[in-house]
Structure formats: structure tokens, C-alpha cells
Predict the structure.
Amino acid sequence: MTQAETATAPATVNEPTNGTPLLELRDLHVYYGNIEALKGVSMTVGEGEIVTLIGSNGAGKSTTLRAISGTHKPRSGAVMLEGRDIHHLPAHEIVSLGIAHSPEGRKVFSRMTVYENLQMGAFSRKGEKIEPDVARVFDLFPRLKERRTQKAGTMSGGEQQMLAMGRALMAHPKILLLDEPSMGLSPILTEQIFNIIREINGQGTTVLLVEQNALMALNAAHRGYVIQTGKILLADTAKNLAANEQVRQAYLGEI
Amino acid sequence: MPGRRIRLNFVNLFLWLLGGGLLAFAAYGSFLTLIEGRIQPNQWQNLIVAGVALGSVYALIALGYTLVYGILFMINFAHGEVFMWGAFTAFFAATALNDAGMMASNPVLAFFLVLATSMLVSMVVAIMLERIAYRPLRGAPRLVPLITAIGASLFLQYTARGFYGSGVRAYPDYTIFDGTISLGFLSLSVKQAVVILAAVGLMVGLYLFINRTRTGRAMRAVSEDKDVAAMMGINVDRIIVTTFAIGGLLAGAAGILYTLIFNQVLFFMGFLPGIKAFTAAVLGGIGNVIGAALGGLILGVVEQLGPNLFLSGYGVPSPNQLKDVIAFSVLVLVLIFRPSGLLGRKENT
């Protein structure tokens, strides 16, 4: 069983050695009705890392993120944020603990302006000044600044993706969950988005990145997990995963 | 039209003929009425002013339908009863104040006390309705809360009958609002002016609340996408309750304005205004706040003006008896020709 060997390989170079990781999933089981979407997912994300979760369509990537942010409750297992189990908390309380979710398909508030979307992103920080954060988001995404008063629904897919990420950043997250940020974007825009992900990470935000574009994701990430039909198949450094024969065949489009 | 072929089947043909026929009937009737010239210009003006006043009341109730629909995609058919409960309970406040002599000594304060009572009671009823009747059904198929709403409506109606009796009660008269105002060619009674101004004030307030405040933004976010709203840190349940509460406050205010016009309360009084306001909300485009206000005004004016304009030319005796027919014909025509309403979006947004 080469798979099992790889999965247990002590390759997690960037994992913090000082005790509890920032985020840890323990044996998560998630159901949609009677269908088991996650069959015991365990993974860790250390502070300051970019961790990517790659896998094909329907493997359970988005479900994992939804279980973390509380928008779809796991039936069993634990979601530990800084050593505290948060899986039973309602989604709206989880944000203020430091987990921001930029969902699949962007899901910006299309009838609101760009600025209002950013205001919504900071909703959990009641009473705090948001102008410095708006400035930071506009710094990362100058395009949004130009479109500040435009309705989000009238923008292009790339701009909406920028807005979704900017909106999530407005919550001041400790960890940013990004679901398919490259979906439907041109290669040039994808490149830009990934550069910005690195930049956000460089500014100190931990990132958990879900991607179908495995090559780009592994390039940007420190570590990666491969998920298949609800189970973690491989866990390794991004470099090793990108070199792994199995991963190359299945997810990087090489034959 | 290139790219779009109109399918002409018998049902569509029938509906178009029906709609066209109704419009032609109304147009010819108006023509007859106008050349007959029995109704004087100042009478037309009075009808329009009365229509605007009644329409503002419809608009306030319609806002409750449309706000709730915008967030939960359900028609709260018990909303007319929310309106009735406010007005009926405030009747006792008004009589007590009148007996205590406050209506005479401090009429403005008395009016605001009655108004506050009505708004508060309607708000409480609306909140309880959401907590008890609708919240347990969140996530159920759309038909289920609809049927529950009808049940809740009957429950509220007959509870009111049990508490307050089945007779018609007359509100004490607010003598401060007697008299008329004339503004150039326009003359209206003080009561009508109060009704219109209060309704417009509340609607502007609501508009600012929705567009300028944090809670208003949260309401808009929840109406777009509950899941994502929760991801932003919005307590969706709390926003839903807030929405019902706001709808209740507006319905309670509408109740008092309604009694200014009609001067009486009855346990059954919520039914017809409720359905009319629903019509107004559909006419304006359900889910659209400005549409509800516009729909209410249009419906009020059509209902007041319509019978005299469309029907009296044909020699129909006492055409005003048919005003409800005209109001609901508007509903039928809207549903045939523009189901999404004047300002509405397409379904499934």
C-alpha cells in the first residue's frame, strides 16, 4: 500500500512544532441527507501556512470548507480552532472567532455595491473602524477601488472573485478559506489571483485553499492534501505532491 | 421579433382576448363617462385624493408582505390580521384616552399614544407569528408555510372575535383632524393629509433604514443569500424576526390610518385590506420595496377612481359597489400580463 505509506510520511515540514495547530479537523463525517460526503476527514493547518486541498469534482473539497465555517454541520468529528472545538457553533459565530470563508462560485451580494459588500464582510466586527481594511483590500485589488460604487452583480467573474476574497479579508480572519478562486478565470487572471493569495499569506493570514487547478495550487501552497470520494488520500509537502506520480497522473493532467 | 417566437396557443389567445377585452371595456366606459360629463372636475379630484390616502394605507401593509417575501419567499397571508390586531387593540386605548378626556385636552399626544399602541401590538403579533407558526417550518416545502399562514390568519381572526366580540366598534373622533386644507386647486381633508404624510414618512424612513443602516444591509444580504449572510457573521434568525417586526410596525401604523379614514374596527377588518395589499405587492413586484409602495398607491387610486370612470358611463347603478371587482381585476390582469409585477425581477433570483 504505497498510498498509506505516503499518507503517513513525516513530510509536514511546515507544521508548527509548538503544540496545537491553528486549525485541525478530526475524523469529520458529513452527510447530505443519507449520502456520506466526508468519510472521516482529518487534517491540520498550521499558523502562517498555505495549505491546499485538491481533488476532483465531488470529492468533498467544498464540503470540508463548509463544515469548517459552520454552514453545513458535520454529523460527527471535531473542528478545532486553536485547540477549541467549534463544530457545534452556528456559522455566524464562527466568523468572529477568525475563520472567513470565500465560497465556491464567489457568491457576492450582487444587488449591493462593491463597498457595501466589503461592509458586509466586516459585519462580525461590530463597531470597529473598517476604513483601514477597505484601504488594504483596495490596495490588493486596485480594480475594486475603481468600481467601489458599482453593483457587484454587474462585474466580471474575475472582479467578483476579487470582491469575494476582499470581502472575506474584511473579517480580519486568522484563517482564510478559499474555495476555487480560479474557477472560470482566464490563465492570466488566475496567475494574478494566486500572486495575491501569496501576498495575503505574506501579510500573515493563514490560507486553506481548495482548488481543481492542482498545479497552480501546489505551486502556491506549502503543504497539500489530496481528497478522493470523501477521504484524504495523500498528505505531503506541496513539492512532494507535485512530484508524486499518482498526483501527476490524476490531477495534473499528465499521462 | 428575431430570436423570440411568441407561442400562440388557445390558452394564451383566450387570456389576451380577455385582457384586451377588459381594457377596451374600461377605455370605452371612460370615454362614455367623460362625454356624459356628469361628474365634476372637483369630484374627480376628491376621488383621486381619497385613492391616494387609501393607497398609502395599502402600501404600508403591502410593505410587510414584500419584506417577508423578499427574505423567506413566502406569502404571509396572516399579515392582514396583524394589521387588524393593532387597530382593534388600539381602539380600547383610544376609548380609554377619550373617556379620560385626553382626546380633548391633549389630542396630538393622544393620537401618538394610540398609534404607538397599535404599532406595538401589531409588532408583537407579527413576532409571535414568526416564532410560533413559521420558524418551525423553515426549510419545509413552500406550500406548507402558505397553508400555515391561512390557518394562522383564521386563528388570529377568531381569537380577536373571542376577545373583542363580533360587533363593529366606532373609534372616537379625533376632532383635531376635522376640517379641510386647500392648496391651490387641490383640496383635501386634514385626515387625508395626515394619512398621506404619515405613510410617506414611514416609507421614507423604511427606505433609509434598509439602505443606510447596518441592520438594513444585513436584511438585504439575507434576502440575497442566507448561507453567505451567515458566513459574514449575520444571525439570520434574528434578521428574519426583525423583518417581521418591521412589517408589524408598519401594519400597526396602517391600522390607525385606516381607522382615520373609516372610523371603525371589526374582527374581520383585516381580511379585505390584507388581500388588497397583497394585490398591491404583486402589482409592484413582490419582494421589491419601492414596488410595494407604488403598487399600493396605484391600487388605491384605481379602486377609487375606477368604478366611476369605467362603469358610470355604461349607466351602472351605484358603481362604487363594484370597487373590489375592479381592484381584483387588476390582480388578474397583472398575473396574466406581468406576473413579476411592475418593478419585479424574474422568479428564481
